[in-house]
Amino acid sequence: MYWCSECARTFALDEVVWRCSCGGLLDLPPVTDRGFEVDRGTGSLWRYRSMFPDPTVAQVTMGEGMTPLVIDAPGVWLKLDFLMPTLSFKDRGSSVLVSHAAAIGVGRVISDSSGNAGTSVAAYATRAGLVAEVYVPAATSPKKVAQLNAYGAEVHQVAGSRQDAADAAIDAVTAGGAFYASHVYNPLFHQGTKTFAFEVWEQLGAMPDVVVLPAGNGTLLLGAAIGFAELVAAGLAPTPPRLVAVQAARCAPVAAAFSRRPEPGGSGETVAEGIAITHPARGAQMLAAVRASGGTVVTVEEAEIVSARQALLARGIDVEPTAAAAWAGWKIWSAGEPPGRSVVVGLSGAGLKSPH
Ligand SMILES: *Cc1c(COP(=O)(O)O)cnc(C)c1O
Ligand SMILES: [Zn+2]
Fold this sequence. Notes:
The chain is an alpha/beta fold and 356 residues long. Helix content is 35%, strand content 16%. It contains eleven helices and 13 strands. The strands form three sheets. It has a six-stranded mixed sheet, with helices on both faces. Helix 3 (142-150) links the parallel strand 7 (131-137) and strand 8 (154-158). Helix 2 (116-127) runs parallel beside helix 3 (142-150). The longest helix has 15 residues, at 162-176. The relative contact order is 0.13. The structure holds pyridoxal-5'-phosphate (PLP) and zinc ion (ZN). The site of pyridoxal-5'-phosphate has 20 residues, from helix 2, helix 7 and helix 11.
């Protein structure tokens, strides 16, 4: 069941609902009623389905997950989470969320996105035989819009900001009663992204000390936090890693809240379009997750993002600027840290999605 983070009202999982009647965000209770099992015969993130709300749901899958973890420097690993069916980590969440939408019998899903989440939802919806309607800001990378069209999504390019695109999607959901396949609001998305944590733990054979992730709406950050917490709760690791969230200096609301600066600052416009989120709906949860882990939020300048992309290319790794931001953030963060910690940096989106 879903439960409201504000008033604790509950909703059955087969209800078409995306927010509580009180306006509160919906969450899912932690999975505590079963053991943590890894089905090693399954090569996708569905190997961890024992920890999904419904392990027996019909899987809408394209083999997503189990992305490579490669060494970047001694003690530093890059998780190539862009090696996914639609070339971003969002496929983790979409696979689980769209499986659920198909299972409860909806024919149509709506989402809004800076590009990658919508593309991912569109691909999985198409695979499940559902119609996907996606709202994106007019300034979205042409390659991402082309990818959306290629998957047969009904694309609405909304004049204005990322928030305007979200507002338009919510209007459409409210008007038509469609299923809002939102990576921000529907907590089933985080059930998919939590597998990032399970994979890191399984691939390293231990918890890392630190995990560095880009943070816009926090779907990867919050999912990872849930996953690490579930590993600890299952007795499989003593403590979760510290979470380092990376934001663009030009769009850094969570960083501002973390350091208790009054104003987020910045224009909100950044080459890291995937994290250009001025008002993250789950901002308070992101802050709480970072704080609880003993981690921090770092900001990166535009020039640092651009040079991080080049530095990764020089290693043969081609990611989009939003993903490069995480690596830039790791560089900045690690400069102030004693060496010797094990660190995983999540690389979230492929280079082909945005111009070089
Ligand atoms: C969506 C996205 C992000 C940010 O994820 P959030 O869940 O909004 O924090 C980072 N990188 C890429 C490539 C993305 O598509
Ligand atoms: Zn409520």
